[in-house]
Amino acid sequence: MCLLLGAAGVGKTLLVKRLQNLCSRDGKGGLGEPPPTRPTVGTDLTDIMAPGNITIRELGGCMGPIWSSYYGNCHSLLFMVDASNPAQLSASCVQLLGVLSAEQLAEASVLILFNKIDLPCYMTLEEVKSLIRLSDIITCAKQNISTAEISARTGTGLGTVLHWLQDQHRTGS
């Protein structure tokens, strides 16, 4: 199982809907207009039908205090950050550090997604890496950590996310 975590409003639900659309079995695979979303209250399980079945458990951002209750079956983790919201960046960094320090997630592979790169006010990956000292976080973490810049709204970078998920599913990690 893959957990999808991040603060409220970072685009987790839209990401899942877009990945589902990208892998739809009808052969179209196009994204079209962004579907409407509502904040996730609680948890949502979604199956992504990429070669094989990948289950993503999205946990609402407001559930941060109890995220650890869901770490048990997690083999991979998507952690989403809003790259257009500098005010939220420090809180997201604190959440990320808490997640990475969880013993139950020591063996999980992690993909940190910097979302909303389509907005004019987004911070570049280099700016975000510098602000949260991402290189230090990666060095100290037990997990294998990757990063990607995406726009769940426009679809930029979703292929990278899907390939990462498929690789994790294939290796069983």
Radius of gyration: 15 Å
The best one-word shape is: globular
**Average pLDDT level:** 90
Main β-sheet: number of strands, strand sense, barrel status? 6 strands, mixed
Distance between the first and last residues' Cα: 9 Å
Strand arrangement in the largest pleated sheet: 2-3-1-4-5-6
Class based on secondary structure composition and strand pairing: alpha/beta
Strand content: 15-25%
Supply the number of helical segments. Answer: 5
What does this structure look like?
This protein is α/β, with parallel strands linked by helices. It contains five helices and six strands. The chain has a six-stranded mixed beta sheet with strand order 2-3-1-4-5-6, with helices on both faces. The radius of gyration is 15 Å and the shape is globular. The termini are close together.
